[in-house]
Amino acid sequence: MKEHKDHIVVSITYGPSSEGSVTASPISHQAPSVPTPSSLAYSVTPSASRFSSRRASAHVSGLVLRFITLVLCFVAALSLAANVHRPSQRHRSQSSSSFASYPELLYCFGVAVTGLVYTSLQTFKGVCDITHRGILISEPLSDYISFILDQVICYLLVSSSSLAIAWIQHANSDSVKTLRNNSIVSASMAFSAFLVLALSSLLSGYKLCKRFMW
Description:
This protein is mainly alpha-helical. Helices cover 64% and strands 10% of the residues. The protein has a two-stranded antiparallel sheet with strand order 1-2. Strand 1 and strand 2 form a beta hairpin. The two termini are 42 Å apart. It is found in: Cell membrane.
């Protein structure tokens, strides 16, 4: 509420006739008005909070996708590594039952290990960013690196699964039956990891575009 206080000013005028006239005029003094805050002053806060909440949800979603990719790459590498043993005397002269004897499977194993190491580092960084924001690497640089490396690992995973499938189609010998079954599991996990990491790369591109827009 605004308070108004009225004061009366008395002025005495002396003329040549030595008669003074007295006049009184009220003067109203108003208390300094408090500026009313504009509605636009608070319009930025909800949008900023929504933007920060979207970034937080995108960060958590990316962390979950990378952890799933980590598990799939681990299974893909383990399914091939579990078959490393000496071939039996019966099939020693025919073919080896180790994946290291076949370049396609060796490439698939190397890509799975590479994807495992990459997603492990990304998952560790994501957990550190939640607890201590930007402690390992700055966010702008992290967005650039994640966007580029996600594309590279996606290409490696889909190419390794393609080579493994091509080898599986030509592996009909009984001596490599176990290796063939393990290769099917490895190729399936590698392709699944490619799909999940492709979603993660789309999310990385979204965050990078948002950084340019904002």
